[in-house]
Design brief:
Largest sheet: none
Strand content: under 5%
Order of helices and strands: HHH
């Protein structure tokens, strides 16, 4: 967003989105280990 504020990236918001999409690699994380620990954490967060 600093690039947008300082006008250092031309093309507005669509160009900034494209710049981020093209330069940042997304990571996907999946829970691992004991499923009961994850189930307990889910109950603490969401209730149930």
């Amino acid at each position: 967003m600093q690039g947008r504020t300082t006008d250092s990236v031309e093309g507005g918001l669509p160009r900034l989105r494209a710049l981020i999409r093209d330069t940042i690699r997304l990571e996907t994380y999946e829970p691992a280990g004991d499923p009961s620990a994850w189930d307990a954490a889910e109950r603490r967060v969401f209730g149930g």
